[in-house]
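Reviewers asked in the last cycle whether our approach scales beyond single polypeptides. To address this, we selected a multi-component target totalling 816 residues and predicted its structure end to end. The input consisted of the following lines:
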Amino acid sequence: MTAKQSPLQKASIIDVQTLDDLISTLAHAGYQVIGPRKQDDAIVYDTLRSAGDLPVGYADEQDGGKYRLVKARDGIYFDYVVGPQSWKRFLFPPHQKICQMRKQGKAFRIVEETAEPPCYAFFGVRACEIAAMKVQDKVFDNGTFADPGYLGKRNAAFIVAVNCGRAGGTCFCASMNTGPRAQGGFDLALTEIVEKKRHVFLIEAGSVRGSEILAKIPRRAATGEDTAAALAATDRAVKGMGRKMVEDVGPLLKRNLEHARWGEVAKRCLTCANCTMVCPTCFCSTVEDVTDLSGSNAERWRRWDSCFTMDFSYIHGGAVRRETSSRYRQWMTHKLSSWFEQFGTSGCVGCGRCITWCPVGIDITEEARAIWESEGRR
Amino acid sequence: MVQEIGLDQLIREHPFFEGLDDATLELIAGCAANERFDAGQYVFREGQPADKFYMVRHGSVALEVRAPGRDSIVLQTCDDGDVMGWSWLVPPFRWKWDARATRLSRLVSFDAICLRGKLDADPALGYAMYKRFVRVIAERLANARLQMLDLYGAGKE
Amino acid sequence: MKEMTALKDPMVPAPFRIERVRKELSDTFTIDLVSAERRRAFSFLPGQFNMLYVFGVGEIPISISGDPADPETIVHTTRAVGSVTNAMWKLGAGQTIGVRGPFGTSWPVEKAEGLDVVIVTGGIGLAPLRPAIYQIMSNRAAYGNVCILYGARTPEDILFRKELEKWRGQFDLQVDVTVDYATGRWAGRVGVVTKLIGRGGFDPHQTVALVCGPEIMMRFAVEALAERGVPNERIYVSLERNMKCGIGFCGHCQLGGDFVCKDGPVFGFDKIAHKFAIQEL
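The resulting structure, written as structure tokens, was:
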């Protein structure tokens, strides 16, 4: 357990007011600080000017097909968990220009564009979301090809993690080994310690630049008691987690590509693609072509796409996956099974968004369990 | 001088007859005869009595169907090595299609009337021959279905 | 973390100049391209494809149909079936096309040395195999018997007809062509291409089979090859799936754990046989 404890040994304690110093220090260092904010009755990720922008005192109620933000404990900064958005919208934007072309006589040329990639500080990144970034890192740098736009933003991004002290209603990160405590992949990690007499943050540095930022804000060294309190917070989240992914789900689904359950879930699935839009690892995209009215300028734009659409698998003559059952199977087996073949890791991090934001409340853990139980297990 | 391969040897070496015993092969060879068809010549015509079946040695025979006001429609061709004709096994023993040599073709014909009687009299022989012809028929059916699928067609947009 | 500023975006096409567009069949054309930047060599392996972009219209994957020994001209042959290919056919010499590639796996032309080669193909499927045929012909002594078994819809749909006739006239090549529907004065074979496999002049135990055509045709071709005794691991097929990127980013072409764009389009049949059996995978 040395890997788990070593960052804690270097941990410090900061006061809640110091969060504001942290945000301004990051801003002074040139980062555009993005963090959780309350907007349209949901937690979204947007620019933070100060700690005052954080949705203090709110918690979320989540279940299959249900999300509600409620007033909870006063003054608590991170009682909510993940909302409908994920950090992928910054690293892999929903709509992004690939290139621009200009007509010149019979020919056309590519217009060179040299925009500096934005330098983000992601504030309040949950452990499952760090895991999701690591998953997408493998997608956009697959050993043969790399997406320089993604990598530029990703490498520049400063990550301030928040370890969860409470499990959301649809969370199952513990069974995916991705949380609730961040095990690396951050520059700084916060754990909110809420006790009767004190309200502080334990803060750990996970990188050199993390330490450099930490050095600029007021802090004191954490005691053994502090670290125990921080670990107790994430332990509470583990204990409060109601959902769990069955074990060895990859091989399980691979040997059940033909199963009555796909037809069952297809009766409920609306193929609305919500699950793929909210998923922090889903990476499918399509390319759109646009021209101006004169026809002398053309652009190519990359847009998020979903394996739930009929067009997705279109080849000359028709779509390969015409049935809802085939499309649901594609999504779920990709996420939980074939992802291992492709990237050596699970494509699911257990954040629970697909469950919460499914309009009919289809639960990926329940679907996996149904197939698991059909093999005579309990 | 060209070495003429005997019918007997030709039959023995053809995969269609593989596995038959010597006596049967001899019997079949006894019913066999060489025939030659020039390009355009009919091997048999639709509706005529099916009293033979054929093995194509060299050449190409088109199985066709006639239609008024247009050229005959070629359903398939039988080429080197193909066994052609099974109407002799199925009542009323009449050819379903026209068979026309599309170029100079040398065929081996087998007297079906003689064979039919022997197959009726000897169920083991009958079974051995039917097994071989069912294969030809099944293949023909599968190929016809594939053709029907219009695999390389324009598809739908 | 390392600096990535110098990295070229693989999604941005490079401009190529059209040298020639020619009609092959009523719905099929060939387009010859040369690099617009400078006459730089473009090397590819038989079976690979490029993403071709038509200004303002869109981008699609098209397999390369030219000679791998000619590094200056890139040749593609395709049917005009969608908006991009139809727009492409309307372009003329001197106009620009965006090119990304070459992408994907190739036919095992070198691995087949010392063995017989049987090429089973139908329709436009001959186009992605032509580079393999060129390469085999340029090194003919390295192979045993070479058979090209080709099926087309009608005699008018026979692709690269002149070349097939030329190859057929060679002593060291067996070329059998069949059509599904005879028209006009066609005196050749009528019937499905899979029928040619039964009597193809190759030794099934010493053969590499390269198969390309509509998926149903490939399934039956593989079956006929298996019946002759060609093992799955020496049968190669080229698959078609929707592709938007060609580099494993867009997710469209997935077939189970494989990205057809990057792990294919050419697959050893032993690697995907089980996937062929599952509907709508």
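Chain A is about 35% helix and 25% strand. We regard this as preliminary and will revisit it once experimental data from Aim 1 are available.
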